[in-house]
Amino acid sequence: MAEADRSTFIVADDHPLFREALIHAVHNCVPDAEVLEAESLATLYDVVESNPDADLLFLDLNMPGVSGFSALAYMRNNHGSMPTVIVSAVDDPAVIRRAIHHGASGFIPKSSPVRMIEAAIESILQGEVWLPENVELSGGGLDSEEARVAAAMSSLTPHQFRVLMMLGEGLLNKQIAYVLGVSEATIKAHVTAILRKMNVTNRTQAVLAVQRLNAQDAVLVE
Amino acid sequence: MAEADRSTFIVADDHPLFREALIHAVHNCVPDAEVLEAESLATLYDVVESNPDADLLFLDLNMPGVSGFSALAYMRNNHGSMPTVIVSAVDDPAVIRRAIHHGASGFIPKSSPVRMIEAAIESILQGEVWLPENVELSGGGLDSEEARVAAAMSSLTPHQFRVLMMLGEGLLNKQIAYVLGVSEATIKAHVTAILRKMNVTNRTQAVLAVQRLNAQDAVLVE
DNA sequence: GCCCTGATTCGACTTTTGGCTAATGGCAAC
DNA sequence: GTTGCCATTAGCCAAAAGTCGAATCAGGGC
User: Which domains does chain A have, with CATH numbers?
Assistant: First the structure.
């Protein structure tokens, strides 16, 4: 579907108005750009999978289905070549730093003025990493525990990742099986694989690990 | 154990240095005060239970065993007459507001200068609610969902609360039984009661509800 | 083509969970 | 004392969770 001669952008954000604003900014930078939208994690999967060659993904850090860095870890693993910019209402420097360490190509606070967003797009399209003013990537990398969890999540297959996200909503295997249209036995197999890769012994622990990864405060991370 | 003629204070914080500083401040305000310490949730249970008439509890919002407002909800329920001051490195006004709405008698940022901490202690001992400068309790109360979860947790018995906290560490019923020195059947009975009170259908959902209550960022709360 | 790897799928089996009943003892309020 | 509520436990049962082994399928390398 993705045409080779047109730039393709994907905007993943659950807020329609902000999506629109972002699309507008993109068109100002690249007039003939094709812009696809995703308002949830589920649609993001589809859009990304059917457009694996998109030039840039704008990803809200706080979408229904995943909060935080889980979706970023997913993109990093399954579509590592697609640059991903985090767009977020949060502007805590620690969060920004973690986003970059998790592989984001940039970070755009939702409070940014339009022309700054456009400048960010230009910059990132040239392969640079864009950060808000006054933010520096000082200090070392991620917390070792956080890096471990992120690495584990990156090793998950797409199906396993989707199952893990649904575990994080407190769904039963049976419910997940129904949503994904497969048998419960299949989901159990996925769960077992997830537990092994994440080095935990039950689903509750897996969910907790994801929650810690996604936390955007100093408390659970620390 | 608590003597009627001496003021008793409890300092619950996992950071020894800060505990010491706090104790020092207390002694400056009330020279003959008896000050008890707790460095974890487990010891806090014991200290509070054996000193139910303490005059004031200093509670770190981020202790090993519980992060966030769970411990506050516990105190509110089981020792409602004991004033509890939240002490925290976080100074987000939203967090402060939520702490007060969850029944705290005050909020002391860890960054406060000593004399301000002493002023806070004086003020709270007089029955007033103490807040950092520049913070107002504007607007309404808690998010309805958050209030619902807090109310549910407040309805838990002490044992049920401890079991819930251990569920939040991903432990099996068998493991919880071993730690608490009771049979697994007892834990199952507690878990069933917890699920009913919290209006969820399985332990993972119960854990998620606690996580949302404890979250100190805008993401999970929103 | 053929082989190999890994993802996905699934059924059979074991363990853990959770609901229900029932019985015991302690403790506090009425 | 009686009436609750809580904590404790057992036993039973159904459902859910988790493990194992195996079949199928797709893609890449030879």
Answer: 8-125 (3.40.50.2300), 144-221 (1.10.10.10)
Is A6 strand, coil or helix?
A: coil
Contact B82, B56 (CB under 8 A): yes
Measure in Å the smallest separation between the Cα of A81 and chain B Cα atoms.
Answer: 28
The answer to whether the C-beta of A202 is closer than 7 A to strand C is yes
> Average pLDDT, stretch A194-205?
96
B36, B54 contact by CB (below 8 A): yes
- pLDDT band (50, 70, 90) for residue A1: very low
Phi, psi of A8 (to 5 degrees): -120, 130
- Of A89, A207, A222, which is closest to B207 when you measure between CB atoms? A207
CB < 8 Å & 24+ apart, contacts of B194-199? B194/B156, B194/B160, B194/B163, B194/B164, B194/B167, B197/B152, B197/B155, B197/B156, B197/B160, B198/B149, B198/B152, B198/B153, B199/B152
Q: Is B87 in contact with B13 (CB distance < 8 Å)?
A: yes
Residue with tokens 């209550």: B213
Q: Is A103 on the interface with B (CB under 8 A)?
A: no
Instruction: Please report the DSSP string for A151-183 in residue order.
Output: HHHHTS-HHHHHHHHHHTTT--HHHHHHHHTS-
Given a contact cutoff of 8 angstroms between Cβ atoms, the answer to whether B14 and B60 are in contact is yes
Q: How would you class A184 by CB atoms within 10 Å of its CB: exposed for 0-12, middle for 13-18, buried for 19 or more?
A: middle
pLDDT at B211: 92
Measured CA to C1', what is the nucleotide nearest A185?
A: C10
Smallest Cα–Cα separation from A38: which of A24, A30, A48, A52? A48
Q: Which two tokens stand for residue A150?
A: 């992120």
| CB–CB contact A208 B211 (8 Å) | yes
pLDDT, mean of residues A162-186: 95
Task: Give the residue on A whose Cα is nearest the Cα of B211.
Answer: A211
Chosen for mutation from A220, A221, A222 (greatest number of chain B CBs closer than 10 Å) is A220
